[in-house]
Structure formats: structure tokens, C-alpha cells
């Protein structure tokens, strides 16, 4: 066993889409900084960012019903939808910048236009969808959406869903042509290829096992070369923990007080994938439904056209599953070893509070393939068992923490950025809305960890993201410019947005 020590400016742990995004932004802001990446697997984008491990939805709140809530007074609150749409516009601008500068190529290899639709059944849900549509259609971010409860129109929008559907129940949908399917795996690989060409040191099959502070305030990482078995020591002034589900354990090892009292609960995702090309050819959209009562928000069922390796496929899900692993390639001991004296009470409180989630997960795990096909038949009445195969997607580790609103052990469904007080370490936990908002989230990391440099960096950030720091909703002209220029750069064939 050797024991080498190396110094670098920045260390990124994990080669997923988050590290890829942060590394790419930092290389544009400070090209002279030396960046080193450690990834325990053999290549980039193999865990949650892989195209088969997530749903590939460019989350812009055009179809996800869980981003809008009906308030007790009957009005629909679209605040969260606005936030997510604005964040996705930031991603589109950054990706366009990279394409326009020839830093990445062939946008069609990672992003395609695909209508986003919401579909509901039953009088009560139809009434909600109409109200939601009305609340959103006045907002410039969502203009261009259509609503219909006319079966003939719906047959045009999604024939597979309408085929042989008994029409004794009300059904309605909304459609927005500005939706996208994003291959986050391909994007991650493109970004790492770019980083490699910029002399970023990327070490695959290198696992970060520990990190501790050095006397001068930097961080020393203990890294195991999984091929040779050697242990290496690497130091950096700034460390980003982008280990996906693996981040919590590394954060705990850092010992920073901000990482205390936080736990994680893994929920796996499973999808049904259609193996019949005739069925695949009949559908062209992402159609999101309503989550079942008691189901967590990430279990909203959806029927998705996907473009992977230039091939069109059809996925339905996700079904939730349970595995104690925090990564698909993780260990069955992940959950138990994440329980520490400081988060024990938080975890126990969550266990008591989240009985309905536990019940839901047990029900989901026990589903037979025929029962899953029954769920699919709510979307495709003609679905047959032979046309669909079950595939296991990625692990999501939901953050559990103590909050003022929810009390001890509250389960979080969003993304959480944890930074040390001095900004020398940042960790990303949680998974939703995930990869779609990676650029916004990484800019937040930069803002929190490098406050002194922000003034100097701002012009470059604005060059990459012209709307940086502005609300697009309040600047419809800028929104139009951003939407049209990014559609052109990313070769999206969406309809021209409507200017107010
Ligand atoms: C079922 C499912 C569906 C989803 N659908 C969508 C969607 O439709 N749209 C969307 O925007 N997002 C979606 N997401 C979320 C999205 O996939 C994630 O937010 C995103 O991929 C996270 O990227 P990441 O870089 O943080 O993590 P990852 O892609 O998981 O990468 C983390 C990397 O760190 C490595 N690593 C971990 N520990 C160590 C260590 N100790 N040393 C070295 N390397 C380490 C891992 O091997 C891995 O390669 C979905 C997620 C799931 C699970």
C-alpha cells in the first residue's frame, strides 16, 4: 500500500451530473484553478444521473401536479411551479452557452422537445385541473398551454391512453409543447469529456473513504484506488460532496456541525419499460397523473416517451421499492451505518411520523407484475403483461431533518445544500427536482461558498446565464428572448412562445 499526498484547489466527489455542472461552471469562472474528481465507479453518470436510472423529465412544472396545491380557499397555489420553471430556464441558458461555445456538441444527444401533459380522471380532479390551468395560463412562464376535456381532442393528444377507454368517467388533460426529455446520463458524460479536455484530473475507481480538516483550514481526503488497493491522501481548499446517495456518509465523516441531526431514507424507483415497438410508436409525450392518496410526491405516476441512444422508448412508473442501499451500487448496511448518536432521535421521530410512507412502501414492494400492469391500465387500458418489462432505476435518499414547521424528524422531498460556515465544503443531499435544476443548485453552492468572489464573477455568470439574478416571470421580454434563443441553441422544435 502506498501513501501519496497531493494538493489541488478543488475536489469534486462523485462523477454525477451535479459535480459535472459545478466543475464546468468553475472552469469557466476560474480556468486556472486545479480541479480533481474522484469517482468510485468506472465511468461518469452511472448512478442516479444515468439515463436508465431516472425519468429524464426536464422538470419545468409544465405537467407535474405535485408542484401546485389547492389551498383551503379553493385557489391553486402555483408558487413552487414558478420557482421550478425559473430554475429550468437557468439550466437551458447554461446548456445553450456550452453548445454555442462548442464546449459540448449535438444537443439532440441530450435534450429533445416533447410535449408535457397532465392527465386526470373523475369530476373532482377535472375541476382541479381546470382551475390549475387557469391559474397558470395567465403567467408568462406557462403561456401556450392548452386544456381539454373533449375525448376527441384527447384522442389526438394521446391515442394510446384513449384507446378502448370506457368514457363513463370524466377525463381531462393539459398540454404544453415547451416540455423536454433530457438524457442526463449523456449530458453528464459530455460535461466530463469537456472537463477532461480542460485538464481536470478525473480519477475513476477511486473511492473517498474519509475527509478531515488540516491545520491550515483545508481538507484532507483519504482516497482508495479500487484497482490497486493503494490509499492516497489529497488536500484541497474547497470540497464538493456530490456523491448522490453516498453524500450523507461523507458529510458525516467531515464532522461539520451543519451536517449533524440529518438522516436519510432510501426509496428505490422501478419502471415498466415497453418492449413492443408498435406500442411505443403510438405515444409521444410525458403524461403525468395524480399521486395516489398516501403516496409520496416522487411516486406520481407518469407515462413517458424517452429518447435514449437515438431510440424511442416508453416508460411507466415509478413504482416505489425499498432497499437499505443509498446508491444502486451501495451496501445493504448504508441505512444502518447512517444512524449516528446525533441523528438517532431525528430518525426515530421520522419512523413514528412516517408510518403511512412505510405502509405505502410495503404495499409497493409486494406488488406483482400483474398488479403493476393494472396500475398501468389506468393510463393504457389495452396494456398487456407481455409488452412490458420491469427495470430497477436509481435510489433516492430522502433527507430527514428537524424543521420548525414539521418538528423533529421531518421527511424532505427537495434538494438540500449543506455548507460549512467557512464555505470550504458543500454537500448536496436529496433528489428532487434533481438534475433539471442542477445549474441553479450549483450556482447556489458557489454563492454560498465563494461570497467574496461573486462580484468579480458576476459578469461571467451573466454571460453564461443572461437572466441570472432576475425573475423571468417579471420580465416577459427577456423570457421571450431566453426561450427563443435557448430553443434555437438546443435545437428544440417547440412552438414560438407568446409575447405579452
Ligand atoms: C427514479 C428516479 C427518477 C428521477 N427522475 C428525474 C427526472 O425525471 N428529472 C430530474 O431532473 N431528476 C430526476 N431524478 C433525480 C436525478 O436523477 C438526481 O437528482 C441526479 O441525478 C443527482 O445527481 P448527482 O450528481 O447528485 O448524483 P449521482 O448521479 O448519483 O452521482 C453521484 C456519484 O457519486 C459517486 N460516489 C458516491 N459516493 C462516493 C465516494 N465515497 N467516493 C467516490 N465516488 C462516490 C457515485 O458512484 C455516483 O457516480 C430522478 C431520480 C431517481 C432515482
TrEMBL record:
Gene Ontology terms describing biological process:
tricarboxylic acid cycle
Q: In which pathway does it act?
A: Carbohydrate metabolism; tricarboxylic acid cycle; oxaloacetate from (S)-malate (quinone route): step 1/1
List the molecular function annotations (GO) for this entry: (S)-2-hydroxyglutarate dehydrogenase activity; L-malate dehydrogenase (quinone) activity
* Documented EC number(s): 1.1.5.4
Xref: SUPFAM superfamilies: FAD/NAD(P)-binding domain
Cofactor requirements of the protein: FAD
| Sorted UniProt keywords | FAD, Flavoprotein, Oxidoreductase, Tricarboxylic acid cycle
- Keyword Flavoprotein in the entry? The reply is yes
Q: Which reaction does it catalyse?
A: (S)-malate + a quinone = a quinol + oxaloacetate
UniProt xrefs under Pfam families: Mqo (PF06039)
- Looking at the keywords, is Iron-sulfur present? no
NCBIfam families found in the cross-reference section: mal_quin_oxido, PRK05257.1-1, PRK05257.1-3, PRK05257.1-4, PRK05257.2-1, PRK05257.2-4, PRK05257.3-1, PRK05257.3-2
Family (UniProt): Belongs to the MQO family.
UniProt protein name: Probable malate:quinone oxidoreductase
**Organism expressing this protein natively:** Oceanobacillus bengalensis
What's the name of its gene?
Answer: mqo
Amino acid at each position: 500500500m502506498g501513501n501519496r499526498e497531493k494538493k489541488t484547489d478543488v475536489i469534486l466527489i462523485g462523477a454525477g451530473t451535479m459535480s459535472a455542472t459545478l466543475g464546468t461552471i468553475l472552469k469557466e469562472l476560474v480556468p486556472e484553478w486545479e480541479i480533481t474528481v474522484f469517482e468510485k465507479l468506472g465511468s461518469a453518470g452511472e448512478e442516479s444521473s444515468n439515463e436508465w436510472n431516472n425519468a429524464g423529465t426536464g422538470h419545468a412544472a409544465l405537467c407535474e401536479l405535485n408542484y401546485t396545491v389547492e389551498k383551503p380557499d379553493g385557489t391553486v397555489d402555483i408558487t413552487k411551479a414558478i420557482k421550478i420553471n425559473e430554475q429550468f430556464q437557468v439550466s437551458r441558458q447554461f446548456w445553450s452557452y456550452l453548445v454555442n461555445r462548442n464546449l459540448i456538441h449535438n444537443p439532440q444527444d441530450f435534450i429533445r422537445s416533447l410535449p408535457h401533459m397532465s392527465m386526470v380522471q373523475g369530476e373532482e380532479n377535472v375541476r382541479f385541473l381546470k382551475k390549475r390551468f387557469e391559474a397558470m395560463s395567465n403567467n408568462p412562464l406557462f403561456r401556450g398551454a392548452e386544456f381539454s376535456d373533449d375525448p376527441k381532442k384527447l384522442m389526438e393528444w394521446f391515442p394510446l391512453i384513449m384507446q378502448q377507454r370506457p368514457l363513463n368517467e370524466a377525463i381531462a388533460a393539459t398540454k404544453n409543447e415547451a416540455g423536454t426529455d433530457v438524457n442526463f446520463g449523456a449530458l453528464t458524460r459530455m460535461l466530463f469529456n469537456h472537463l477532461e479536455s480542460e485538464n481536470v484530473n478525473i480519477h475513476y475507481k477511486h473511492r473517498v473513504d474519509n475527509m478531515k480538516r488540516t491545520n491550515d483550514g483545508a481538507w484532507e481526503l483519504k482516497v482508495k484506488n479500487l484497482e490497486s488497493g493503494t490509499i492516497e491522501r489529497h488536500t484541497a481548499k474547497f470540497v464538493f460532496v456530490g456523491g448522490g446517495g453516498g453524500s450523507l456518509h461523507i458529510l458525516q465523516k467531515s464532522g461539520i456541525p451543519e451536517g449533524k441531526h440529518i438522516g436519510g431514507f432510501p426509496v428505490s424507483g422501478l419502471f415498466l419499460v415497453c418492449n413492443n415497438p408498435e406500442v411505443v410508436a403510438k405515444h409521444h409525450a410525458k403524461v403525468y397523473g395524480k399521486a395516489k392518496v398516501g403516496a409520496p410526491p416522487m411516486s406520481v405516476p407518469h407515462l413517458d416517451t424517452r429518447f435514449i441512444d437515438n431510440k424511442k422508448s416508453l416508460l411507466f412508473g415509478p413504482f416505489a421499492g425499498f432497499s437499505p442501499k443509498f446508491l444502486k451500487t451501495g451496501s445493504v448496511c448504508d441505512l444502518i451505518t447512517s444512524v449516528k448518536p446525533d441523528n438517532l432521535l431525528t430518525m426515530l421521530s421520522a419512523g413514528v411520523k412516517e408510518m403511512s410512507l412505510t405502509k405505502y412502501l410495503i404495499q409497493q414492494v409486494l406488488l406483482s407484475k400483474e398488479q403493476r400492469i393494472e396500475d398501468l391500465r389506468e393510463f393504457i387500458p389495452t396494456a398487456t403483461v407481455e409488452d412490458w418489462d420491469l427495470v430497477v432505476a436509481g435510489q433516492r435518499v430522502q433527507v430527514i431533518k428537524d424543521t420548525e414547521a414539521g418538528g423533529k424528524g421531518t421527511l424532505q422531498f427537495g434538494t438540500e445544500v449543506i455548507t460549512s460556515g467557512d464555505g470550504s465544503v458543500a454537500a448536496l443531499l436529496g433528489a428532487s427536482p434533481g438534475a433539471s435544476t442542477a445549474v441553479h443548485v450549483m450556482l447556489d453552492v458557489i454563492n454560498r461558498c465563494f461570497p467574496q468572489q461573486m462580484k468579480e464573477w458576476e459578469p461571467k455568470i451573466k454571460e453564461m446565464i443572461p437572466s441570472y439574478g432576475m425573475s423571468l416571470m417579471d420580465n416577459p421580454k427577456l423570457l421571450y428572448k431566453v426561450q427563443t434563443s435557448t430553443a434555437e441553441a438546443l435545437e428544440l422544435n417547440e412552438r414560438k412562445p407568446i409575447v405579452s
